[in-house]
Amino acid sequence: xxxxxxxxxxxxxxxxxxxxxxxxxxxxxxxxxxxxxxxxxxxxxxxxxxxxxxxxxxxxxxxxxxxxxxxxxxxxxxxxxxxxxxxxxxxxxxxxxxxxxxxxxxxxxxxxxxxxxxxxxxxxxxxxxxxxxxxxxxxxxxxxxxxxxxxxxxxxxxxxxxxxxxxxxxxxxxxxxxxxxxxxxxxxxxxxxxxxxxxxxxxxxxxxxxxxxxxxxxxxxxxxxxxxxxxxxxxxxxxxxxxxxxxxxxxxxxxxxxxxxxxxxxxxxxxxxxxxxxxxxxxxxxxxxxxxxxxxxxxxxxxxxxxxxxxxxxxxxxxxxxxxxxxxxxxxxxxxxxxxxxxxxxxxxxxxxxxxxxxxxxxxxxxxxxxxxxxxxxxxxxxxxxxxxxxxxxxxxxxxxxxxxxxxxxxxxxxxxxxxxxxxxxxxxxxxxxxxxxxxxxxxxxxxxxxxxxxxxxxxxxxxxxxxxxxxxxxxxxxxxxxxxxxxxxxxxxxxxxxxxxxxxxxxxxxxxxxxxxxxxxxxxxxxxxxxxxxxxxxxxxxxxxxxxxxxxxxxxxxxxxxxxxxxxxxxxxxxxxxxxxxxxxxxxxxxxxxxxxxxxxxxxxxxxxxxxxxxxxxxxxxxxxxxxxxxxxxxxxxxxxxxxxxxxxxxxxxxxxxxxxxxxxxxxxxxxxxx
Length: 676
What we know:
Layout: H1 4-10, E1 12-18, E2 28-33, H2 39-50, E3 59-63, E4 68-70, H3 77-80, E5 87-92, E6 94-100, E7 106-112, H4 117-128, E8 136-139, H5 143-153, E9 164-166, H6 213-220, H7 228-233, H8 240-246, E10 267-272, H9 286-301, H10 309-328, H11 338-354, E11 372-380, E12 390-398, E13 401-405, E14 417-420, E15 425-431, E16 436-445, E17 448-456, H12 459-473, H13 483-497, H14 520-525, H15 528-539, H16 547-559, E18 567-573, E19 580-584, E20 588-592, E21 599-604, E22 608-614, E23 619-624, E24 628-634, H17 639-652, H18 665-672
Parallel strand pairs: 1-5, 6-10, 7-9
Antiparallel strand pairs: 1-2, 3-4, 3-5, 6-7, 8-10, 11-12, 11-17, 12-13, 13-14, 15-16, 16-17, 18-19, 18-24, 19-20, 20-21, 22-23, 23-24
């Protein structure tokens, strides 16, 4: 025991501000403390002085100057580094947050501002009934992407009553543990696999959650498309540099919202960050599938990802006309027959392979008999684009290499050239209407990329060779179990593109606004009546699809685009005098020329030995096999974002269907957190 005089000589005054709603009670308190007082004791001392009878269990100390929470209640003030000049804020850990979802709907809910973003997103996804929360994260919109909207809103005041779905009464968002029934593997509300509606026998599972049947419909269904005026107000990237701005605002998953400057009732975007959609199941994932579909839809409408005119019309027919029509139709509420359910399961199976979500180690390879392809193809050399440069050769595809010979008789001898496709970029060059089936190969060499174009004669030949090239680029052979599903996926996409200009119903009598269904580039190119006619022609090939199948096919078509899954950043490579663009995908990094958009070099994650960050100079350094190493600084965003992307994709590649849905959060932070 020490005397009061000795206590006073060692003690000092600490200013604490309390965040409460009682107007008649002061908010600032001066407490007499010593350095060996622990945080829990400080809380007790403060609450005794406040003299307000309420539940303080969600309150914690926020240290404003240091931008951090003091959550370890057994730590002393000395251990935390708190001294007399510190200003502590005693506030709730769970606060209101507005989230704009991929379908552009805004929800308002209570979120933990004190736990790391990775865990906060997990809690948010439990409320919204979205499985696999590790695929999503939060984005803060940058000033550049908001400028256009601000200009529009300068003279017109924004309505005070925004259309917001209020989910603030959720057990999870109130800081309590969420009902395990809402998210467990066995008790997740079951959805109709065709229409996406919650099955009537399980809708009662929503009763303790704000996610009622009506709210579920808002999240699981597509709603009427926005007007062309609304579309024009949204940020549309024109260049690679513009696209890089879209990826600058990802929050750090290893820090809390408060630590990153997010305030109560701020608006953030909830988006799928990692393009590896794992274990999609229409019975449980109606909300998740719809939100993936919506993110893809908006990416295409706002030209965040490039596609051809033919592809744009397919997207318009699928997403805009067919899905919107079925979503509004009472037919979508009907229960499916067995055959329809089988079709959806088949489409889903193809989609899972296409999106590379699963563990790819289980390949059915017979090392004694690796399949091969051999056929006549035409080769086009890029620097000689005259007709004379197109010449037919006998091509043989074996393992992960293509060899070509003057003719079939010469195939027993030495090839004219052998192309190793491991690590190459494979780009489709297809126009079904013009019977053009091309494969563009960008093959990595010491000083960049060599280009080669292969021309196929028909759909079947193209699908087989394209699938083989795609697998070879990942280091897989045609013996891999994903080869035949890949061929089937390509043929399905070609079939959707293969429509004929048949007579359609009078376009003028059709209640369709094509400006809502295609990107602005095509509304400027064609008249409205022309677009309606072409969308209706494309719709013939998809008109028999069910609602969920149409969404899955849309996602699959999105995945088939060359730019799918690429997140862009402006970087400066070590030793370079100019800026480049770095594309980050689920399995590779691509160095891209910022002026032309052409790929320069590709590095596969499978060849990566290690990566690290020099936090002092904010430089990312990566080592690959064969003594290849690169280093770069990021100019369009914090280097932590790229570091987290790489670690995040490696973390997601460790998932398997054998595991339960609990995640190894420690492993995620080891791979993504860094040591700043």
